[in-house]
């Protein structure tokens, strides 16, 4: 068995490369499976959702045929809880939360440290922990709402939570971890596969993947499994921190990465 990755963006949404460039790089690196997960269209994803959905599906299907003797290609979608309904038949769905919402206004957790700080200030008067707890309360319903096969970047809200002026909340705070535990226990009723997501490492924001070590332990205790998602937006990060990620989950008691079981 070679490598696999289920979290791949391309020029159809906010990625830098074409799907074919991603496939060729995956083949070069020894992948046996590559899954595409373009961002579903959503009010909060106006700027980065897939606009040409038919073209996206058609392109991936053509690549499936063209490279069928070299690699298994899957056509998935990354659906947000606020995404527009989409009844296309995808091979799999990644479920995610990227924003908080007030009425018709969306407050992104992952656009930039500046916009994240502004959102915390506006919604919670600078209380990052309260913002993060609300985020986890939304994540609680991500599998039920998106009908996903994989739960993406479970604690994306911590993306810009570093040190110094970018310290927004304590990721070990009791209220935050309690909300995370409740979210894990609710999600496993619908979807037990969580992503070890290295996207923020690939983009230089963090040195560690999602979710945190504390949450890995909670996922295991709840009977969840871990899979790999590079959350890649370029050929350079298609296998970002894969081996380190696998070592990390093994250190937390998982028996390696779990693959999707898909009947194509
Ligand atoms: Zn995402
Ligand atoms: Zn993504």
CATH architecture: Alpha-Beta Barrel
Q: What is the global morphology?
A: globular
- Report the average pLDDT across residues: 96
- Largest sheet, if any? 5 strands, parallel
> For this structure, what is the CATH class?
Alpha Beta
Low-confidence stretches: none
Which cofactor or ligand species appear? zinc ion
In CATH terms, the superfamily is: Metal-dependent hydrolases
What does this structure look like?
The chain has 264 residues and is an alpha/beta fold. 34% of the residues lie in helices and 17% in strands. It is built from 9 helices and 9 strands. The strands form 3 sheets. Strands 1-2-3-4-7 form a 5-stranded parallel β-sheet. A two-stranded antiparallel sheet has the order 5-6. A hairpin with a 2-residue loop joins strand 5 and strand 6 (105-108). The longest helix has 14 residues, at 53-66. Residues 78, 96, 98, 152-153 line the site of one zinc ion.
Outline of the structure:
This protein is an alpha/beta fold and 264 residues long.
Tag the structure with descriptive keywords.
single chain, 264 residues, alpha/beta, TIM Barrel, five-stranded parallel beta sheet, two-stranded antiparallel sheet, 9 helices, globular, binds zinc ion
Task: Set out the fold topology.
Layout: E1 3-5, H1 19-29, E2 31-39, H2 53-66, E3 72-80, E4 92-96, E5 99-102, E6 105-108, H3 113-124, H4 128-139, H5 142-146, E7 150-151, H6 174-187, E8 193-197, H7 199-202, H8 213-221, E9 225-229, H9 242-251
One zinc ion (ZN) is lined by residues 78, 96, 98, 152-153.
